[in-house]
Amino acid sequence: TEEKSLHFIEQIIEENLANGFPQNKLRFRFPPEPNGYLHIGHAKSICLNFGLGLKYNAPVNLRFDDTNPAKEEQEYVDAIKEDLQWLGFQWDKELYASDYFQQLYDWAILLINNGKAYVDSQSSEAMAEQKGTPSQAGVDSPYRNRSVEENLALFEGMKNGDFEEGTHVLRAKIDMASSNMLMRDPIMYRVLHKEHHRTGNDWCIYPMYDYTHGESDYLEQISHSICTLEFVMHRELYDWFLDQIYDTNKVRPHQYEFARLNLNYTVMSKRKLLQLVQENIVNGWDDPRMPTISGLRRRGYTSASIRKFCENIGVAKRENIIDYSLLEFCLRDDLNKTAPRVMAVLDPVKVVITNYPDGKVELLDAENNQEDESAGFRKVPFSKEFYIEREDFLEVAPAKFFRLSIGNEVRLKNAYIIKAESVSKDENGTITEIQVTYDTDSLSGSGSEASKRKVAGTLHWVSVQHAVEAEVRLYDRLFIDEAPDSHKEKNFLDFMNPNSLSIIKGFVEPSLETAAPGDKFQFQRLGYFNVDKDSTASKLVFNKTVGLKDAWEE
Ligand code: ATP
Ligand code: MG
Ligand code: MG
Fold first, then answer.
1. Which residue among the candidates 270, 289, 299, 308 is catalytic per the annotation?
2. Ligand 1 within 6 A of 269 CB?
3. What ipTM, to 2 d.p.?
4. What is the rounded CA–CA span in Å between residue 317 and residue 9?
5. How many structural domains does the chain have?
6. CATH of the domain at 282
7. Which residues, given as ranges, of the chain have pLDDT below 50?
């Protein structure tokens, strides 16, 4: 196998190691906010951080960034853990930013004592006005030079619940003229009289992301804190907060930024995905059309295919948009190797073999997966009446129609060569039955001369008397626009595909009768399907995972 070149973060780590950074002090983290389910974008960050952990034999923490009680819930914590495990990664410690609330509070007091933080008692509008513009310095808050004593008293009052939301904030005292707007006295704490999913009502002040993140990394001794490019400007602030507390005997975390994953034909912000769920535009976070990990799993994606996708797209420093078809390519590639082949007919028309004995049933050998010898064979029942796909028959064949037509032969997969003779129709002219004859010596694999006869096409089929009825859910892209959230005048919801789900009834071969939720198959000539979680013994439900060929090219 080819030697893979190192991506830029691996190069940085190699350089750090070469310069004497001890390998046993490498430590990474994946820091989701539990305000929604993980999506395919998170998978990229997960594969990156946990990939580094595996490569350098270093621990990776799962840190819930739970500093905003208004949006966070235990349900999301549980779902995130389940998805991470399913993706195949094991974290070292499960940690919560909320575990550091006391330490963060103590450090805030230290900053106040050192003249590096102050309580501002203006409205958020007034503070926004004073921020200035990148080319124009901001204006100092009238409260910027409050005494340490006054700041300590007010901050304690904030903590004790003496104040309403929006009355006071704690701000870092940095530089109101900085060319980096984030350095113009950013807010560290705000009053929020909200119950937190873990700390309950212990706190009514909550720390902001920028203050929390670096200090949490420091507490956990994370060496490389990896985030997406929109945090580039935050790095200066991340470093400033660390400067205030850093002990030189400890590992000092550094922030590195990589390009987030963008996929076409979908949206990936949790806020927007939540809106799809709350407005019942989809059937929950794990709707098979969603770009969430749980949606992809339910759709029939394998974790190996998602990991492979993340590996293929690589780790870059410049934003780009990845084609959805690349994700499907990785899936198809994996399922081709692993999914057993079976026969299902989704738009059935009945066929009768006029010269086949009434009541006879043959159990024919069918290979489970030609890509995997160890998958073996199964028995498929064959009889006088079977279904084929309606589109596999035309009374009069146009040129290059390698399927069934009057007077022409096709092979039935694993079975015989048949020739169409006549059809029956209803009053609307719809074909209700096709009468055929079969070549009695042509059974596949029998070794006879006729079994080796080449005919133009091979069709899949399901014996009528053995067919098992199933609900099949077919999916199309969720949005009709390549970049639904990129339009100035329109909302992403204006680009929903009204036909993203269709539910049909089909027939599957009897070996599928005992298929269980999550089981994956190739329905021959149709695509890859998996058993949905709604499926029961009395009513099978399949999802179409992906077609056999790329259907995205228009
Ligand atoms: P969203 O905007 O979807 O809510 P987020 O960044 O706010 O995403 P977090 O839960 O904070 O969501 O993300 C956890 C980690 O996953 C962060 O380190 C974040 O940078 C990373 N991440 C989120 N979205 C992507 C993406 N599209 N591509 C790569 N990494 C991502
Ligand atoms: Mg975030
Ligand atoms: Mg977010």
1. 270
2. yes
3. 0.96
4. 10
5. 3
6. 2.40.240.10
7. 1, 554
